[in-house]
């Protein structure tokens, strides 16, 4: 089960701000979003936001961090399971894709934060914070990489370069943040089918056996 923002932060007031900010950043991007935009989305004053966050950069960083916290929490049970590397990777991948769908606004902020860091389009202070956040994201990617390495050693996955394979697989799993939109009357079964299709595409790219589907 995906953890909600409220379950991941102690302060419910802060959780509401994070949700409103994530939605604004997803819709407008960091540069075009203001604290005023977030306050309007929240139906609150700017003072409520500034009580928790001294700047837009601080707010964005916490949205990024919360998105990654949710991802770590979602995959951890599968990572720690007693299954085979294939079963663990598939479970982690399914949980990850659900995160991309169910917490899409936060995941878009993570993606934009990484892009901002790579472009260097930030202040020195923000670059330092984004460097730390990007390292946190890299730690998450390494969880998948470790399971891939174990599976390749057992002959489950077949690829030449593990770094390239891991990045390409994660790009596939991340892809719903760019194209997914909920459809009218979409059911849980519909969402599960989308998740499975994305995971199967990634598994095929990793040279997993057909029964992995």
Describe the structure in your own words.
It contains 11 helices and no strands. 75% of the residues lie in helices and 0% in strands. The chain has helices at 5-8, 12-28, 35-42, 46-52, 56-79, 85-102, 104-119, 124-153, 162-174, 176-179, 188-205. Helix 2 packs across helix 5 and helix 9 runs antiparallel to helix 11 (188-205). It has a single domain, classed as Tetracycline Repressor, domain 2 (Orthogonal Bundle). The protein has 213 residues and is mostly helical.
* CA gyration radius, whole angstroms: 18 Å
Major beta-sheet overview: none
> How does the helix and strand content classify structurally?
mainly alpha
**Quick one: overall form?**
globular
Q: What percent of residues adopt helix (DSSP H or I)?
A: over 70%
How many strand segments? 0
- CATH top-level class: Mainly Alpha
Helical stretch tally: 11
Task: Describe the secondary structure blueprint for this structure.
Layout: H1 5-8, H2 12-28, H3 35-42, H4 46-52, H5 56-79, H6 85-102, H7 104-119, H8 124-153, H9 162-174, H10 176-179, H11 188-205
Helix pairs in contact: 2-3, 2-5, 2-7, 5-6, 5-7, 5-8, 6-8, 6-11, 7-8, 8-9, 9-11
In short, what is this structure?
With 213 residues, the chain is mainly α. The protein has eleven helices and no strands.
Kindly list the characteristics that best describe this protein:
single chain, 213 residues, mainly alpha, Tetracycline Repressor, domain 2
């Amino acid at each position: 089960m995906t953890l909600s923002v409220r379950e991941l932060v102690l302060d419910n007031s802060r959780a509401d701000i994070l949700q409103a900010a994530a939605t604004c950043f997803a819709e407008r991007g960091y540069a075009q979003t203001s604290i005023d935009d977030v306050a309007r989305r929240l139906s609150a004053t700017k003072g409520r936001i500034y009580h928790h966050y001294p700047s837009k950069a601080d707010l964005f960083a916490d949205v990024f961090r919360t998105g990654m916290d949710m991802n770590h929490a979602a995959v951890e049970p599968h990572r720690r399971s007693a299954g085979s590397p294939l079963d663990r990777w598939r479970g982690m991948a399914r949980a990850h894709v659900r995160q991309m769908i169910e917490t899409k606004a936060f995941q878009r902020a993570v993606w934009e934060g990484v892009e901002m860091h790579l472009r260097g389009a930030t202040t020195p202070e923000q670059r330092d914070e984004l460097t730390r956040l990007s390292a946190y994201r890299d730690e998450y990617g390494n969880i998948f990489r470790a399971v891939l390495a174990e599976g390749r050693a057992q002959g489950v996955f077949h690829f030449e370069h593990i770094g390239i394979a891991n990045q390409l697989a994660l790009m596939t799993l991340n892809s719903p943040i760019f194209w997914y939109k909920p459809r009218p009357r979409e059911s849980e079964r519909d969402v599960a089918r989308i998740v499975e299709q994305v995971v199967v595409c990634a598994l095929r790219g990793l040279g997993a056996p057909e029964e992995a589907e």
